[in-house]
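Progress report, Aim 2. The chain analyzed during this reporting quarter is listed below.
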Amino acid sequence: MSGTGQAFLSPRSLATAIGLSESSLKRWIDGGRLAVVRTAGGHRRIPVTEAVRFIREQRLMVVDGSHLGLESPGPGGSPLPSSDDADERIHAALLSGDPIRLRNLLSGMFLAGASLASLSDGPLCRSLRRIGELWTHGEDGIAVEHLATDCCLHAVQFVRSLLPPTPATAPIALGCAPSGDPYLLPTTLAAAVLAEGGWNAVNLGPETPTRVLRLAVIRHQPRLVWVAASTETSDIPGLLTDLEELAATTGIPVVVGGRIFRERPVPQGKLLHAASLSELAGLARGLREPPDQLSRA
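Predicted C-alpha cells for the chain:
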C-alpha cells in the first residue's frame, strides 16, 4: 500500500492469485500487456486496479483471491461462484447479513467479467425483492431487509474500489434520490454503474431537495444528472416539473429511474428514462458520443 492509498501487488502475488508462474507473468509485463510501477529499489509493483483490468480483459481464473483483498468466506462458499448457483448464494449472503461473503461473491463475478449493472439488475435485484417480501410475514423481516441493504452497500463499494482511478478529465455525473425518498442503495448503485462507465460520479444521496440539486449542478457543472426515486414522495408531479425545468435551463440531460417511474409516465422529450441500471449505463455511453445516438424516453 502506498502513501496515496493505492494498493499494489508484487508479480509473485498476482501470479499466485491467478495460478500462473511468476516467470509467465513477468513475460506479460515485459511485453507491455500489464502496466507496472517501480519502487525506489527498482522492484516491479502492479496496481490492484490494473491487475483487475488484466484479469477481466484476459478472462483469467482467480484461484487465490486473498491477494486481491477477498477474505476467506468461511463455510458455505468459494469467492468465485458459477452462474448456476450465483442467485442462491448471493441471496444466502444477503439473508444472513454476511458482508464478507457477499463481497467475495460479487467481486468474483466482477473479476469473471460481469458488469456492475448486470450484477445490480440481476442477482442483487432479484434477491432484494425476495427479502423485501419478508415484510409481509412479520416485523422481523424489516430487520433482515435493513441488514441486507447495509451488507449490499458495503459490498458494492468494495467492488467499486476495484475500478481504475477516475481521470481528472472524466465527465461529471451528479445524482441523488429526491426529497422524501430515504433509500440510499438505488442511487449508490447508479453512481457505481456510472463510475464503471468512466464518469466521475458524485452522489448526493437520499432525501435531496430539488433546490439542493440545483445548487450542486451550479457547483459541479455535470454533463449528466440522475435521480433515482424508489418511493412515493409528497409531490412526484412537482418533482418531474422541477427536473424538466432543470434540464431546460441548463441543457444538461436529466435521467430519472427507480421503482416509481416503472408505473408513472415520464414526460416525452424533456427527461430521459432509464428502466434499469443497464439502460442507465447505455444512456451514459450515448451521452459521451454524438447527440444523434442518444435515445430519449
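The two ends are 45 Å apart (CA to CA). Residues 8-62 form a domain with the Multidrug-efflux Transporter Regulator; Chain: A; Domain 2 fold (CATH 1.10.1660.10). These observations will guide the mutagenesis work planned for the next reporting period.
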